[in-house]
């Protein structure tokens, strides 16, 4: 009995010592494993750096060796295929594709077919107003984009309209590596004037664009042409742009001409204020030519045919707030734009015979809107807006006609819910006073669904 007691005590003391030994062995093994991984990573990194240096030296050799002719571009073609095979990704060079599905239900107190913006002459068939009543398939947008080579990328957005027609919203090539902050875009694209103009409809915070855009830019200005941009190498965001275009869209009109029918200049700047605030502001100028452009005014006896120029100035500002820069739970965006348009030319009316007159008018409009995400997935918004039609100036031939300034206005409330980043359902109510002495109550229920790969949206 006396011998068993010491043996038991010794065994009890040895057990934790053995456990400690096992723990020490495990720690040592983990340390060794981490050290092996670090060594393997450093060796792999060194190997990649050596391969990079070799590739740079190889590419520089033809430029320095006079006897060696430059390699033809096709010689580099097999390399991507080898990389693709090595990675096992057979879709590496397929374009990214996306499809935006959208539909609405609209209920209005006034007939949308008789909608017009009082005091503003617009081309025949201008897409303004609330659209059609009842259920309708809204614009469906098919997007395709991909890098073409190390210097260029291409993008196209095809719109499928509710009437089964198809149009090309955008189709352009764009440089990717000019350097020095320079960029060039060529093809068909939305102009970068203002803030909302370059954004696709599915990114708008409301169902429709503001009245100022509808009345003076044909809802959204796009053109065929070329765009040059320069991004300043500064901490503060500064971007300048120049656009030359065909001038096919309102306030211009398509015509056979050798020169540019549209010129636009843009300047934007912005930056951060602390961790929770950022802003952007800018000013833009657009000048477009119109040739034999038919303008309709429901209050006029007959349509007028306009020949002349239109100058448009846009001032825009945006301020965003998100606590500590995290916009996932709550955030607020305040934005506004002021647009001023001046038309100068000759208008022809057919009232018992053609009658020409000098036609000049300065018109303006603004909107201010705020959108608050008060909890994840839920947002509410309010927009107020107003237009000033101005008083047109005619010469003596039109002196019997009397005009006065009109002030269409509109107030809109919005509530939307996003089950995910790829879907959204929106409820919107608007009180629209664009017609003469008539208010229109407009109720919309809208859905938007995004399928496939979709790039990040602009600021």
UniProtKB/TrEMBL annotation:
Compositionally biased region (Low complexity): 56-68, 76-86
Bilayer-crossing regions: none
Start and end residues of each stretch annotated as Disordered: 56-88
Keywords: Signal
Record's signal peptide: 1-21
Coiled-coil residue windows: none
Keyword Cell cycle: no
InterPro entries: Porin_dom_sf
Protein name: Porin
Annotated source species: Piscinibacter terrae
